[in-house]
């Protein structure tokens, strides 16, 4: 290729880009211009909704990244970021022309082909997941994506109203929080501002006007405080830059909505940033401002010693000023300020001397590698996105491990989230937590600064109720993974028993099916292993009788006469612990000791009903789905039962009945009045009992209270 590019042939926006990338070596600037020529050729004839040539968009994206001082590869990939999706240009051409790194970056940003997905949401979810995984390989992918989104938001006016709302919602929900998670406050602030303006134009206008009015009234006070701070710092020989800060419309709107505060409460604060030359000067400046104005108790935060999860560092303090309103002051070095504004991108523009523990990059990589783990164990893209959204909560609590390490978790995180943040094995075997030396349950919500130690036991395992307790994506994914594994094991065992019974009834057995026949059947059924077939049967996706007939037919013989041997009529015994495969019907609440029947429900597995359940008549109309089951001799655990109790309506009656139930060692889950008048009332109690005998004991105690005119199991 020619060493230089003909500048006279370049349009003004390309020349503007050349000016912006002047910080790069000359050879790299030529590569950038070469990329522009290739991109302009590839996008020739394409226009944006506004009518401008399409190439103006990628060039603008490259310009945004050039302002951050990024390397040539990122700028080139930004210019070409839409070529793989929207033009004839191939990945091979890109790699040959600009190297593998550029091709990898462009590929990472390119959305997935929409054809492969059932719904738009699914396509968006999958392309978002792909982008996050690509960004885990190279963080520059997300920088290009964020710049792309920022330029799209700046030029949103050309789109129709529904598109504007959808894109703005997605920006506020996903892209602005990602920018914040990567410490890129400048990007985050503009994305939030543009998103808010597009999604709620009226609210944006009202709040913006009120901010302007409030600032006008306070300009003089702001000036006086700024002058006093600057003078005091100079008197103590501290070289510092003091800048006034203004809250953005979106942050005020979010706080009004989330914290239920009024506009006046939020605006009644003066904000300043003090930028000094070294970390030691930050603490000296803190002493100076505390000597000037009195600090507000418990409002000081040291994010220099304990950086935020995205690498942000600063000292925060709140002072009581001369005008009766609090003054919020942030104190930081110029480098910390650069990291706060640019986050992970500061690495390229600002050669950082701070250790890796403080760098936004190291923290971003940590977060991204946890996303990769989560993606590997989450099947659905939508579920993965939900987990990511949970992890993008900006409010964090900072917690200490017994070794003095710091973990940051989202607000409302529990001790169980902490356990999984330490390690999946710790989470899986957790039984309780010691928080600041006090023994507390795993569902305890944690607060910043607490010292948390997790107590584990080798026999402890996750249970489904944990999903209601945790808030982090990592914990949710790990618990689901364990439960799926458990369900699979139970399903394989159960499916084996069901298929054996079905084959037995036709005069054969699973051992009697030659391996070659079994392999052929699995292949035609598109199943990899026998376990998958057995699991499918237990989960109600395949009928055991049908599978048995197909296996015998493919063996080359007809099904034998139904067996008359006693074991052909044997029922499958259940212990109730097969919760991954079994569920208990809400219409009749079967208990150990009841005569029961199983019904194969597709995808749900076996739903257990009592034989006398009114719905069983209907279920028996599909005999191939009915499974003969019975309770095992030794059944553990608690089961839900409902008790209908008629009482004389007088004060204290509910307490008397509840005490009788508790005295019988039963736990009350719920109670409601079904009917009520002046003389009598009917109550419906949902209880946990061990078996029929336990329920009978509860009923006996309730009847003995003397306030009850009738007590019986419901439904009868």
Q: Bin the strand percentage.
A: 15-25%
In total, the number of strands is 21
What can be said about the biggest beta sheet? 6 strands, mixed
Count of helical segments?
A: 29
In terms of per-residue confidence, which ranges show pLDDT below 50 for 5 or more consecutive residues? 350-358, 559-568
CATH homology-level superfamily of one domain:
Hypothetical protein af1432
- Give the CATH architecture of one domain: Orthogonal Bundle
CATH fold title of one domain: Hypothetical protein af1432
Content-based structural category: alpha+beta
> N- to C-terminal separation?
88 Å
CATH class of one domain: Mainly Alpha
Q: State the shape.
A: globular
Mean pLDDT: 83
In angstroms, what is the radius of gyration? 33 Å
Considering DSSP H and I runs of 4 or more, what fraction of the residues is helical?
Answer: 40-55%
Pathway: Purine metabolism; ppGpp biosynthesis; ppGpp from GDP: step 1/1
Function: In eubacteria ppGpp (guanosine 3'-diphosphate 5'-diphosphate) is a mediator of the stringent response that coordinates a variety of cellular activities in response to changes in nutritional abundance.
Catalytic activity: guanosine 3',5'-bis(diphosphate) + H2O = GDP + diphosphate + H(+)
GO biological process, one term: nucleobase-containing small molecule interconversion
């Amino acid at each position: 290729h020619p060493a230089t590019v003909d500048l006279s042939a370049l349009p003004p926006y390309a020349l503007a880009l050349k000016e912006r990338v002047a910080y790069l070596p000359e050879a790299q600037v030529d590569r950038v211009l070469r990329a522009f020529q290739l991109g302009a050729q590839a996008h020739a004839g394409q226009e944006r909704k506004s009518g401008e040539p399409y190439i103006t968009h990628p060039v603008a994206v490259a310009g945004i990244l050039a302002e951050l001082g990024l390397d040539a590869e990122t700028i080139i990939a930004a210019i070409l970021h839409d070529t793989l999706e929207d033009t004839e240009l191939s990945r091979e051409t890109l790699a040959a022309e600009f190297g593998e790194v550029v091709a990898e970056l462009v590929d990472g940003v390119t959305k997935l082909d929409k054809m492969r997905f059932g719904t738009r949401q699914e396509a968006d979810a999958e392309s978002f997941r792909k982008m996050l995984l690509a960004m885990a390989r190279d963080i520059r992918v997300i920088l290009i994506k964020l710049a792309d989104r920022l330029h799209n938001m700046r030029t949103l006016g050309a789109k129709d109203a529904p598109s504007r709302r959808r894109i703005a919602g997605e920006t506020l929900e996903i892209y602005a929080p990602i920018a914040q998670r990567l410490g890129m406050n400048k990007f985050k602030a503009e994305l939030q501002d543009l998103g808010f303006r597009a999604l709620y134009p009226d609210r944006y206008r009202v709040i913006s006007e009120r901010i302007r009015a409030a600032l006008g009234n306070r300009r003089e006070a702001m000036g006086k405080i700024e002058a006093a701070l600057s003078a005091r710092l100079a008197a103590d020989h501290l070289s510092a830059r003091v800048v006034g800060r203004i809250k953005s419309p979106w942050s005020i709107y979010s706080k009004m909505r989330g914290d239920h505060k009024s506009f006046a409460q939020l605006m009644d604060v003066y904000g300043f940033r003090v930028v000094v030359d070294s970390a030691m000067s930050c603490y000296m400046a803190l002493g100076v401002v505390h000597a000037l104005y009195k600090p507000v108790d418990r409002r000081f935060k040291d994010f220099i010693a304990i950086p935020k999860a995205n690498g942000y560092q600063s000292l925060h303090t709140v002072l009581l000023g001369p005008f009766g309103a609090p003054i919020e002051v942030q104190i930081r070095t110029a480098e910390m300020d650069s990291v706060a504004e640019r986050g992970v991108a500061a690495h390229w523009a600002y050669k950082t001397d701070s250790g890796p523990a403080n760098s936004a990059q190291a923290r971003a990589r940590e977060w991204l590698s946890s996303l990769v783990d989560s993606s590997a164990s989450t099947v659905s893209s939508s579920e993965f996105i939900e987990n990511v959204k949970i992890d993008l909560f900006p409010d964090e609590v900072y917690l200490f491990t017994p070794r003095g390490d710091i973990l940051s978790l989202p607000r409302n995180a529990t001790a169980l989230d902490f356990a999984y943040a330490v390690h999946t094995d710790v989470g899986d075997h957790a039984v309780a937590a010691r928080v600041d030396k006090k023994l507390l349950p795993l569902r305890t919500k944690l607060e910043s600064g607490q010292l948390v130690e997790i107590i584990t036991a080798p026999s402890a395992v996750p249970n489904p109720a944990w999903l209601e307790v945790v808030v982090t994506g990592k914990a949710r994914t790990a618990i689901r993974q364990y439960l799926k594994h458990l369900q699979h094991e139970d399903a394989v065992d159960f499916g084996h028993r069901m298929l054996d019974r079905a084959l037995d009834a036709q005069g054969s057995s699973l051992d009697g099916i030659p391996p070659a026949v079994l392999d052929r059947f699995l292949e035609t059924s598109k199943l990899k292993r026998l376990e998958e077939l057995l699991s499918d049967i237990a989960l109600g996706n395949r009928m055991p009788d049908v599978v048995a007939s197909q296996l015998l037919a493919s063996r080359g013989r007809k099904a034998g006469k139904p067996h008359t041997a006693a074991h052909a009529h044997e029922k499958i015994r259940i212990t109730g612990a097969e919760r991954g495969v079994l569920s208990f019907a809400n219409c009749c609440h079967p208990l150990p000791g009841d005569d029961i029947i199983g019904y194969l429900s597709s995808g749900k597995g076996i739903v257990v009903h009592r034989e006398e359940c009114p719905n069983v008549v209907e279920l028996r109309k599909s005999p191939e789905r009915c499974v003969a089951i019975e309770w095992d001799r030794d059944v553990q655990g608690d089961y839900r039962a409902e008790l209908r109790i008629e009482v004389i309506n007088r004060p204290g009656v509910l307490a008397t009945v509840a005490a009788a139930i508790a005295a019988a060692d039963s736990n009350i889950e719920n109670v409601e009045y079904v009917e009520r008048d002046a003389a009598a009332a009917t109550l419906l109690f949902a209880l946990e009992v061990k078996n029929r005998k336990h329920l009978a004991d509860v009923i006996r105690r309730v009847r003995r209270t003397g306030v009850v005119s009738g007590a019986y199991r419901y439904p009868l």
